[in-house]
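Hey,
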Amino acid sequence: MSSDQRRVLIQSSLFIATFITTTLAGAEWTYGRSVFMPDYGWDDFISGMQFSIPFLLILTVHEFGHYFMAKYHMVKVTLPYYIPIPPIPFSIGTMGAIIRLKSRVHSKKQNFDIGIAGPLAGFVMAMMVLFYGFTHLPSPEYIFQIHPEYEEYGLDYAEKVYANLPENIIDVTIGHNLLFLFFENFVAEPDRMPNPHEIMHYPFLFAGYLSLVFTCLNLLPIGQLDGGHVVYGLFGFKVHRIIASAFFVSFMFYAGLGVIDLKDDPSNLIFWIPGFIAFLYFALTGLGLPKRDTLMYALVIFAVQLVISWMYPGVHGYSGWLLFVFILGRFIGIPHPPSEIEEPLDAKRIVLGWLCLLIFIICFSPEPILLK
């Protein structure tokens, strides 16, 4: 078997595995049917495809946007490598997909085109999925198929259910972004809109929403993320470094705000405080600063977070971003490498670049998924 055949076999296997894991996740999120249930069957698995097919469709369109643009610029590139996640609690079945560039990208224009093609293509597909989902909402009574126990309260179940949840029940709430609010208020029939606690039971809405979250993360103006390519193309190497560094530090500050609470047990704080400072330090290494400066910034960030949490106990960030912050800082990096050819972008590319930054804003949700 040649190396190309082996690579295609690996990519095909990863896609099949990701399709299975996202379908299992879809059945669990939408209908509460876990693969670990003794009576789990094929009907349950097939029901999960209502989530996995639109979700993977958006993800695939995104990756092939990069792929075909790389081919257009005659840059050697692989087909997507999908990343499956085993069926663990609160998993969505995948961490996304990546493609590998096998030859060097020589110009800023090529970097920009390859970087922007994915999020633009994926965003268009996500809009189509969301439009279908919001214009084909089932009747409000649909939720009783998922939660028959709500039926005794009628359509005003929210007032009774969410106020008296048992302690062993984890309440999952989907956040909002500007685009989702637009669909809710101007596209959907108001009397059919699901409660934010129940959106995961509407597979097209949930798939579309998660796709917006993925799009937003890809468009962060940091390093060699898609958004990093866009900002580098628009503003150049030096300005990109300033924007990326400031945005990364702000993103990390928000994510970690409220993680350390001085009201916690002192015996726990002895371990949590040094551990969190170490986390900040290793994440900040992505800035490429001297070790002493990196440690100083980590201590300053921690101190300011602690003061804010002490003065305003109700203020907190979203700790769910912390893993992504660490991956960015430790593995992806914050700066963008300079290109061999630094030609300015034309007017059409500049417009598309600013459009992508707007897409980032309308897709951003400060707290995408809340678990209480």
